[in-house]
Structure formats: C-alpha cells, structure tokens
Design a protein that fits this description.
Length: 331
Amino acid sequence: MRLSEGRILVTGGAGLIGSALIWALNDLGIEDIVVCDRMSNDERYRNLVPLHFNDYVDADDLMLYLQGDSKIRTIFHLGACADTMEKDCRFLMKNNFEFTKTLAHCAENRGIRFIYASSAATYGDGAQGMDDEELRLQDLRPRNPYGYSKHLFDIYAQSQWMKLYGIKYFNIFGPNEYHKGAMISKVAHAYIQIRDTGEVKLFKSHHPSYADGQQRRDFLYIKDAVAMTIFLGNAAEKVGNHATTGIYNVGSGVSQTWIDLVAPIFEVLQKPQRIVFIDMPEHLRTQYQYYTCGNIKKIRSLGYEAPLTPLREAVIDYVANYLIPGKHLGE
C-alpha cells in the first residue's frame, strides 16, 4: 500500500523533521494527514501554517484519538525529546521509550505501518562502526541519556520481532528548526554569529587525532532527509524482506568538518572567513562525537537512487532562501 492510499499520522509533526515531512508529502499531493505534537510556548506552530493536513491532536490525547480513528494506515513517529543535553532519564524514558513502545504495539495490533525515528546518537563514539547492514545493537554504547533512550527502543523492537522500520537520523539541518533554541543546528547558530559579529565560534579539539575545526560529522539537509523517509515509508512492505532489524541509516554517507559546514555561510553573507576556536565545556567532553559517518548502502540497496545535496549547496540554499528572508518550508 502506497502512502497516498491511506491516512497518515505524523507525531512530532510541528518539529523540524515532522513539518518538513508534511511539506514533502503535500508536494506529492498528499493531504490526508493527522498532525500530533505537544506544543507549548515556543513558535513551532509557525512550521504548520503553510502546510495542508486534516486534523491535529495533542500528544497527551493521542492514544484516545487512535481508538476512534480507523482510517490511519501509516504512522511516522518522529515525536520525542531530542535534547542531547537532557539529563532527566525518567523523563526521557517516558517520552522516548515508553510512549514509543505503547504506540508501536497499538500500530502492530491494528495492522498500521510504523516508521519511527531512532538516532545516530545510538552509535556512541562509533567504535563499533556506524553500519546498518551488519548492526549488532547490543554492542552499541550511546554516550548520553537521549541516545540511550532511543537505543533501548531499537533493542526492544528487535527482541520482540516487531515489523517496525527505524531510521537512524544523522546531523539534520535546514528550515523549520527555528523554534529549537539552543538545539538549533550549527548552520543556524553560525549564521546568527557571522551576521551579527562577522565571526563564528567553534569548539577546539580535545582529541589528538583531530585538529581544531576538523572534527567530522555526517551532515544531511532536511530536504534529503524527508525524501529518504518517504521512500522508506513507501518501501516498508519490502523492508521486511531485506533486513532482520528494519533499521536504516539516513545520512549523507560522507563525513565533513565543521569548517566545511560554516565556510559557505561567510560566502553567502559576503564576509571574510573568521573562525575563533574556544574551549569545549568540561561536561561535554565525555559525550562528544569526533567522527560520524553513516553507511547508507542499505537504503541504496533497497532502491533509493536520488542524489543527495552536496553540503555547500545545502548550506547556501538554507541561508540564502530561508534564514536571510526568515521563511519556513512551504512559504
């Protein structure tokens, strides 16, 4: 069954990935969508203003809502506490593990296709690799409570042989992240710094193998991330025949430096490149990932052939067409 053939529920639908997914679905002519989120006093509602969907439900009311809605055929579960600095493990377990478990069992019992957001944070320092083709979940060692809460559900789903399809998102950036405060991407942070001061601050390296600014990440533009997510949603019936875990890396498959990331911002703003390296706070040093790079051969082998936006082009598009004019996707 294609995504266009049934109602779609998107949890976290007002967030970065959720609202971008709805934007991409709208672009395909799909509007039979229910948005679920837990909005408070931030301005994530602005992400929804240009979008088309049929209904909205608060996250606290979702399970009751599902008892009465028999038309939902696909759930994209993207809602979670995604703050990598959050230390309240009880809160994370309730929001990221227990809620996901309850929703997944509901979907399984009703024959609803279920695609959920895991995270590259589950890979920890990458010592066990970041390969979704030969993934031994029990060997992974997440380095923060957020990563562990996501990792725990991956293990649970695998142990229960649930037909779920997890997506390990890498470093996603792009429009519709404006509400995230301190958790916005480095592109958005750097744009503000360069615009206002003419310089950007990056953390010094505290690892002998990496020079300052040469720490590396797998950066992926939000437009590519949601295109890959939709592909997996449509391919979900095939996924069960190709993998025992149902977990897929969604990244660029390329590792690039923080300097690579911020350099195009100076270019767009027509300012000379000025980078100031500052000490990393002590409390971050034990959690810091110096290198991430997702193997994306698994999603490629499933048939995803679209080229991914090169980092420089993605940053330029984001800064020039969204950050400078202050636009959201769909405006």
